[in-house]
Amino acid sequence: MDDTQSTHSLNAELYHDQTFFEIEREKVFYTEWQWVGRSQSLVASGDFITTEIANYPIILIKDKNNKINGFHNVCRHRASKVLQQDKGNCKSMVCPYHGWNYGLNGNLKNPPNFFGGKDFNYKKHSLFPIRVSEKYGLIFVNFSLKSQSLDDWLGPFNKVINNYYDNDYIFHNELKFDVHANWKTYVDNYQEGYHIPLIHPQLNRDVVWEDYTIENTELCSIHSVPSRFGSNQPGSFGWHFPNFIFNMYGRGIVFQRIEPIKPNWCRVVYNLFRPSSVSFDDFESNEGKYQLDVTLEDQQLVPEIQRNLQAGIYQSGPLSAKYESGVAHFHQLLMKKITKGE
Predict the structure, then answer these.
(1) Is the confidence at residue 224, as pLDDT, over 60?
(2) Which residues form the Rieske domain (predicted)?
(3) What sign for the dihedral angle of Cα 66, 67, 72, 78?
(4) Which residues contact 43 (CB under 8 A, 6 or more apart)?
C-alpha cells in the first residue's frame, strides 16, 4: 500500500446511498469500457442481443458488413425499448410502440403516417450509438464516444491476460448470480486475499497464502499466490476498474463482471473457457466445480456484509497493507473518477 492510498475503507453510506449510486452510473459506468457479451453470440447478419449496464438498456447487432453495432435500446420517438427480446435475429429493428423502423446500422427509415412538423428530419433521428470493441472473444462497449480505445484502457491488464489466454480456448458455460449487495461490496471482497484462510478452505489448502501479493498499477490489480506442491488449480487473478475480472483456474480461464443493479443489488456473471482438447465433463468436474465452490463461499458472506453496512453502526475500518492494498487501490480510483471535474 503506497503513501497515496487510504488506510481505511470507504464510508459505509456510499454502499447504499441512492444519490451516490446515480453519480456512479454517470461518472463511472457511462465512461468506462464494459464487457457485455461474447462475439460468438452474434454470427449472422441481423443477430442481436439486448442487455443493460447500470440500468442503461443497449442493443448489440451484427450488420450486413459483419460489423457489430451498438445502440441505446431507446426509440428516438417516445423512448420505448426498440427490441424487447433478450436475443434473436431481425432484418430491421422495429419499435413495438409506434412502428418506427431502424436499419441494422441504426438509421431511421422514413416513418409512414407520422406527419411530423416542418422541422422534422427523419435522417437526424437515428438510434443513439455506443462504441463497440472485441477482445478475447468478448464484446465490450463504451457509452462515451470520446473514450480511449479498448486496448489503451486495458493497458497492462492486456499483457497479463495475454500471458495466459490461448486462442484454442472454447466457451464452456456461463453462470449468473443475483447478489443482494452493492457492487462495491462484491469488488472489495475480490480485491483482497485476507479472507482466504477462513472463507475458502480448499483454496487455502492449495496455495501458499503467506506469499500472497498484489500489484496495483494504473486501472488494475494483479493478484498472485504460489500453488502448493501437487495443486494445479489456483493461478493468477486480476481486476480492472471498475468491474472486469479474470481468474486462471488450472487449464482454463474465467472472465467475470459485477453488474450494478441497485444500491443494494448486483449481478455477478461468469464466463468459463476451456481448451478445445478438454471435454466438457472433464473440465466441469474439475475447474468448473472449483470455481463454483469458491463463488458460493463468497456469496454466503457478501450479503451479510451489505446488511451491516446499511445498519448504521459501522462507518469505516482499517485496511491491511499486505492483503488489502487492492481494496485501497479500488477506492482511490473510484473517488478520483467521482470527484473529477468538481
Answers:
(1) yes
(2) 33-141
(3) negative
(4) 62
